[in-house]
Specification:
about 260 residues; Rossmann fold; 7-stranded parallel beta sheet; binds 2-amino-2-deoxy-6-O-phosphono-alpha-D-glucopyranose
Amino acid sequence: MIVADPAATGRVVADAVCRLLAERPDGVLGLATGSSPLPAYRELVRRHRAGEVSFRQARAFLLDEYVGLPPGHPQAYRSVIERELTGALDIPAAAVRGPDGTAHDLGAECAAYEAAIAAAGGIDLQVLGVGADGHIGFNEPSSSLGSRTRLKTLTARTRRDNARFFGGVDQVPRHVLTQGVGTILEARHLVLVAAGEAKAEAIARAVEGPVTAMTPASSLQLHPHASVVVDEAAAAGLRLTDYYREAYAGKPSWQGL
Ligand code: GLP
């Protein structure tokens, strides 16, 4: 769906989250970090403060985490999500889980994370951003489309893209834990959000290109319920924009995202 600006992407994604929690107050959310979902998170915090939505019974799983940052490091995704979203909601801290990048046995941690998602009944709604290289979570190009939560090495490009959060590329960790593409594809509804011209090529490849491990976001084409929410700038590389606009304009209101 193509909307005017980042704030509008936030309203659309927030609508989908609120709709899920209205139907299922103990719904399981999959949360992405990065700048793309921030308008949605701000909108959710606003609605929560206005008494429009409660997360008291909700549960949440993060997509990914850096390896080796000390607990409580401001750029650890566990800290970021608490600062940007969950700390401002009524979701219990214990109901928000992420892969533990400080674990001694990272392989065991990844297996335990998969088991925790399964024990929660799976993820109902997974919010996703997309890297400029087409990655989702931290599944860099060439990640197996069947991959599970595991250790990955970041590409130089992703480390450069994320250097702004660390005060220099040398400070960006080389390794991460991330839900695999196969893990992500098991969520019942995928909502990928992107804004800005820097994402236009990745969005075009993800939505209209071939399904390929070189563009992990293209795996959404295999999912039975995947929504892509973009602003005009991120939509600039798409070919079927007239069709997408017409389909969205004519969407029945009962259908949701
Ligand atoms: C990081 C995260 C991804 C995110 C991507 C894009 O690599 N691991 O989950 O989608 O950045 O970030 P941004 O939304 O800031 O462009």
